# Entry
Amino acid sequence: MKSDLNIKLKQKCEQGISDVWKLRSSLCQIVSNISDECDIWALLVKPICPELLPVTVKVENIKVELKNEHQLQLAKEKRERLIAERDRLRTEPDKGEEFIRIKNALNYSINNIADIKKRSVLRTNRHIRWFSNKTEASEENAPIKFSTSPAARRGLSPVIRVQKDSMPWYQPFSIVGSVAIFLIYFCFIREENDLDLEFNKTLYERIKGLEKHQLLQAYKFNKENGYSVEEIETRLKEIELEEAKSAA
# Structure
């Protein structure tokens, strides 16, 4: 019963999703047709007047024909569609994907133009040489002294800054000596402790019965392939004696 209900719910969900996608595709098709028939830039620009201005059309020599009525009906429907699309863009201008895409493209273009202008201004100012108009009539052709010119009062920062080292001269020797003494004590002088003995243990000593299990597997393999099993039998006897001693 529950499985039938789940299947029905799943079918309803799939049908609803397919209906939503069909509706979305139809709306996208309508928007694309509208954008192809009219100027999309005029729709994206927010109008200054909150209300539509009345359209006055002067018609001279009106002839009532079926063709003209049909064209007028099509024009009215197109105008209603464009007004509805314009209202939609006015109500949600910052949420539409097309509006955001165009807005981002315009911002990117504006930023690039600003960067190009800035670079061109810097490039032109780099080649401009400024001259001073403050000259004295009596010393116009006389050489300018560097010590009295404004250039002498400007200080230059050194290219290489030498930092004073406050480290004592014996610091490297003390560090090397301390490390050497520690290694000599740790590696040669000190006695072994329980941790060192733990490092010397094999895997068979840590896991009980592992060696016997592997020997039995090797014994079976050698028997099937015709290899010698004397060493394996000897080791198995030794393990059985050790187990008997530990059990006693």
